[in-house]
Amino acid sequence: MRHPAFADEQWSQAVVDYANYDLTGAPPTMRASASLEAVRQDSVDLYGGGVVLAALFELTRLRKPVVLLTIREVPDVNHYTIIFGAVGAKAVARELRLLLGPFDGYS
Q1: Does residue 87 contact residue 77 with C-beta atoms inside 8 Å?
Q2: Contact partners, residue 77, CB within 8 Å, separation at least 6
Q3: What is the mean pLDDT of the chain?
């Protein structure tokens, strides 16, 4: 059975590589390698604002311009396929090109 987050054309070698990297254990008891404590702390940071608010405060102290990517609605992607799927990766690349301008190659 396939995971619904990777329906249609979203499955790719990048997804396979990520799954192989993230999984631990042996069949049939494989699981994500994240620790429960790390997930708890991430949730506190995300929903409690601690680390995120501190990072945003530190940005105000910089003496250089800072650009944060803005929120864009990208149809038919999820939190996995926005970076692993072709549709999502193209949407991210498009926003970066708009932000950074034309690419002249490596110097």
Answers
A1: yes
A2: 10, 85, 87, 88, 91
A3: 81
pLDDT at 2: 65
Task: With beta carbons less than 8 A apart as the criterion, state whether 8 and 78 touch.
Answer: no
Where are the extended beta strands (E) located within 6-53? Answer: 23-24, 31-32
Per-residue model confidence as pLDDT tens digits over 27-84? 889 888 988 998 888 888 777 777 778 888 888 888 887 766 677 888 888 888 888 8
Task: Return d(Cα 32, Cα 46) in angstroms, integer.
Answer: 20
How many Å apart are CA 67 and CA 96, to the nearest integer? Answer: 11
Using the Cα atoms of residue 11, residue 14, residue 17 and residue 23 in order, give the sign of their dihedral.
negative
Domain ranges of the chain: 23-65, 67-101
Write down the pTM of the prediction.
Answer: 0.53
Amino acid at 33: S
